[in-house]
Design a protein that fits this description.
By secondary structure, the protein is of the alpha/beta class. The chain has twelve helices and eight strands. The chain starts with a helix and ends with a helix.
């Protein structure tokens, strides 16, 4: 049931989105249809174990950084393997995301990708959407000189719990954004508002009941956001 107060909060969020000076999108299960780390794990032959760890992390039984470390330790993806994965698994963009990003760009709205995913995989997505590298906040895989897996860069904002909120804070301080919106499917996205001025829950690939219930505006297709801009 939608209460009056929930409806007015939804209207407020819509108004902020229409006037946004910056919009940040999560990548996995939002801009793309899959969870890239789970797909990479399947490619490495450890899909099931990694899915269990992902669930543990989502349930809050492990810190974000511990879960990331544990999943990568199972995969141990070399540079060569990541390159092979990229060639055989081009990202599957969610319907209408290209049109939405193009519309935002035309309006002069800055668009960012903010994700716990890895830069080497996210770059394939950003190229398709014409989003410059400096507008990507993600994790970075580290390799030894011969390409063997070394680990991940723990200094990135998104490498630890609350990382997306830190990115929002950084963007607001650096650029003075007044109407910064985060769009995503998961708890880490919702937790980034505040500092983000609004959060839009996205259920076009994965419906997470807690997000559906708590987001002030919840959509299941990017067409709804395009329509709001055209309103």
């Amino acid at each position: 049931m939608v209460t009056c107060s929930h409806h007015s909060k939804m209207e407020d969020t819509m108004a902020i989105f229409r006037m946004a000076d910056a919009v940040c999108f999560d990548v996995d299960s939002t801009v793309i249809q899959d969870e890239a780390i789970d797909e990479l794990a399947k490619f490495c032959g450890v899909g099931h174990q990694v899915e269990l760890l992902t669930k543990k992390a989502m349930d809050g039984n492990m810190s974000y950084q511990e879960a990331l470390q544990a999943r990568l330790d199972l995969c141990k993806p070399s540079k060569q393997l990541v390159d092979k994965f990229k060639r055989s698994h081009p990202p599957r963009l969610t319907n209408d995301i290209e049109l939405l990003v193009e519309k935002l760009h035309k309006r002069g709205t800055a668009v960012y990708l903010v994700t716990g995913g890895f830069a080497c995989l996210v770059s394939e997505v950003s190229k398709k959407l014409n989003i410059p590298d400096e507008n990507i906040f993600s994790n970075r895989l580290l390799f030894y000189f011969d390409g063997k897996f070394h680990g991940f860069d723990k200094t990135q904002y998104t490498a630890s719990s609350g990382g997306k909120a830190k990115v929002m804070d950084h963007l607001k301080q650096k650029f003075g954004y007044q109407r910064l919106v985060m769009v995503g499917d998961g708890a880490t996205d919702m937790e980034s508002s505040p500092p983000a001025d609004a959060f839009i829950g996205f259920g076009g690939n994965q419906i997470r009941p807690n997000i559906q219930n708590e987001a002030q505006w919840y959509v299941t297709s990017f067409k709804e956001l395009i329509d709001a801009l055209d309103f």
